What does this fold into?
Amino acid sequence: MTETPAELEAWAKTLTEALPLPPGFAADIPAVLDLARDAAHGVARPAAPLTTFLVGLAAGLDGGSPEALDRAFATARRLATADPE
It folds into this structure.
C-alpha cells in the first residue's frame, strides 16, 4: 500500500472534526481512493466522487456502523469492477 500524502491526511482530519462524525472516527483514505479509482476506471471518471458520496450516504442511512460502511463499499466495488455484459 502506498503512503497517503500528508495533505490528504490533514484534510481528512480537518473535515472529520468539522462534520458530525463519531469521536475517534478515522477515514480509511487508501480504501476510499481505491474505490474512487475503481469507479473512475470501471464506469467513468465522474463516477469517482459520485460513488464515494453515495457509499457514505448509504452507510449512514444503514446505521453508520463499520459493517454498514463495509457493505456499501463492497457493493460499490463489485458493481464498479464488474465486466460489462
Observations:
- Helices lie at 6-18, 29-42, 47-61, 66-81.
- Residues 27-85 form one domain.
- DSSP finds four helices and no strands in the chain.
- The longest helix spans residues 66-81.
